[in-house]
Amino acid sequence: MPNTLNKTENPKKFVIVTETLDGFGFAKHLIEEGNEVLMAYRMQEDEENPDEFDKVGEGVVKKIPLDEIMEDRNAYREWYWLFDLNHHYQDSEILRSEGFKVLGSSELMWKMEHDRQF
pLDDT tens across 64-90, in order? Predict the structure, then answer.
């Protein structure tokens, strides 16, 4: 029996917020299911390989700087915002406070990981 891809009957729209493009595999899976996906990033460029980031996901997923998408976030109000790691909690908290659908990263998560006294 051939391996057929299960396309979702109700495609959704996702913004995957990333720092290192670790979420690319997840993004690719969501796209293969028929969903629309954007990857929003804010990361430090690798000084030795400044073009490496541009190569990841090229031609597969659209990548937008996180600052740009946050500035125009109301255009993505009905999208699901997925933070692939525990980073950029300030942005996730802004989105939550404005009623966006957000999964991952929060101030509490960040404190639990980075503030030993907390």
Answer: 899 999 999 999 999 999 988 777 778
